[in-house]
Design goal:
The protein is of the alpha/beta class. Helices cover 38% and strands 14% of the residues. The protein is built from 17 helices and 12 strands. The strands form 3 sheets. It has an 8-stranded mixed beta sheet, sandwiched between helices. A two-stranded antiparallel sheet has the order 1-2. Strands 3-4 form a two-stranded parallel ribbon. A hairpin with a 4-residue loop joins β7 and β8. The longest helix has 19 residues. The protein is globular and about 70 Å long. The chain starts with a strand and ends with a helix.
């Protein structure tokens, strides 16, 4: 490199400066020189060299660090090519990752021509279940969903008698018990002698009063099971007092004893409440409630009273329970054919989570023992939809 120097006798000239050359020696690959910063005016005696940060070296430093390594495992990050600095934990071996859900590994079709083709082709062609079967299995899965925590209490109530509250309690309990692996019980908590136990084949004379009186001696489910009637659907029913003189004595404290006992052995406890909402058993029933079913008839006054029930609950601090509740609209009551059911349903949808219509069924209208398998298909489907909605609300309250 040369710089401008000064010679006394003949003016400016170029002369090498070895010391400066050694001091400013840089590789062109390492130094970026901007010519605009070099002063080459003849009157100067020195130049200014500006060096910038070596970009090449900075990029090389990044390359030397290698890929970013993480310790918090995520299946999504792994698929994106992330590198982890520890062995993969066992939690990464999920069913979604490992199970092959391709057609060859589907379960065999349940019935019909699809099942015939499956076995005719030596299990090489699997068309899967029909849409109807898939929908039924989906409802089964919703009803049978696992519940976290202890027993879940679901009261079935209304302000008006004769709208099918006990019938709805029975249908709901049977639909739950049929599809769930755990235990379901329906308690008749009507202080004025309810009829819930008459809707199943009665196998015992014990009532809620006997549970209260013998609570200290009940040592396990075997003892408790002798006091309930079990339907073929596996629904257990605990009857109310049959003696009208004793029924008035069933109060808040008695209900709490029965409810505490039922919570030991059952996952879902349905409570068939008495007519009205201000009797002695209603307060502990609502205090324990995790879900709620309101029963409405199909007439003008029945629908209005059911809606007023919701208003009363909201005014008394149960607004969250109301928003998470389900209305069972019983269309088998009198004057249903004269009423616009769509309008009633639309009204309740603005107040609760869902509305389910219970269709007319001669097997229910008789008021005797209900055999779930003998009901019309539409009635069974309505009961199962109601059960699925109840379980949905228990797992995901609004």
């Amino acid at each position: 490199m040369a710089i401008w120097g000064k010679k006394p006798e003949d003016g400016d000239f170029l002369a090498p400066r070895p010391a400066v050359a050694e001091e400013k020696s840089h590789s062109l690959a390492e130094v970026a020189v901007d010519a605009g910063f070099i002063d080459v005016t003849p009157s100067t005696s020195s130049i200014e060299i500006v060096t910038e940060e070596p970009i090449v070296n900075r990029d090389l430093d990044k390359a030397d660090t290698g890929p970013i390594r993480r310790t918090n495992y995520s299946r999504r990050d792994s698929l994106r090519g992330e590198v982890f600095n520890q062995p993969e934990p066992a939690a990464m071996l999920t069913a979604d990752r490992l199970l092959d859900v391709s057609a060859r590994n589907r379960p065999a079709p349940e019935s019909g021509i699809r099942r015939f083709i499956y076995f005719l082709t030596l299990k090489t062609i699997n068309l899967g279940d029909s849409l109807a079967v898939r929908e039924r299995k989906a409802i089964d899965a919703r009803i049978g969903a696992a519940l976290e925590g202890g027993a879940k209490f679901v009261p079935v109530l209304t302000r008006k008698g004769g709208v099918g509250k006990t019938t709805v309690s029975t249908l709901l309990g049977m639909a739950l018990a049929l599809s769930r692996e755990d235990r379901v019980i329906a308690i008749d908590a009507n202080p004025d002698r309810g009829t819930l136990a008459e809707r199943v084949s009665k196998s015992t004379r014990f009532t809620v009063r006997d549970v209260v009186n013998r609570a200290a001696a009940i040592d396990g489910f075997t003892d408790f099971s002798t006091m309930v009637s079990r339907d073929v659907t596996r629904l257990d029913v605990l009857a109310s007092d049959s003696d009208p003189m004793l029924s008035e004595a069933f109060d808040e404290g008695d209900y709490n004893v029965v409810a505490d006992m039922a919570a030991r052995y059952y996952s879902i406890v349905l409570t068939d409440c008495g007519t009205g909402i201000v009797h002695s058993v209603m307060r502990p029933t609502l205090q324990r409630a995790n879900g709620l079913v309101i029963v409405s008839g199909g007439s003008v006054d029945e629908a209005r009273l059911a809606s007023e029930t919701l208003t009363w609950l909201e005014a008394n601090g149960y607004g969250d329970l109301v928003r998470n509740s389900v209305v069972a609209l019983n269309t088998a009551t009198q004057a249903t054919q004269l009423v616009k059911l769509d309008e009633i349903e639309q009204h309740f949808k603005t107040r609760v989570r869902h509305v389910v219509r219970i269709p007319y069924d001669p097997a229910l209208a008789a008021g005797s023992v209900i055999k779930f398998k003998d009901l019309k298909k539409a009635t069974r489907e309505a009961a199962r939809e109601l059960a699925a909605l109840v379980v949905d609300g228990l797992n995901n309250p609004v």
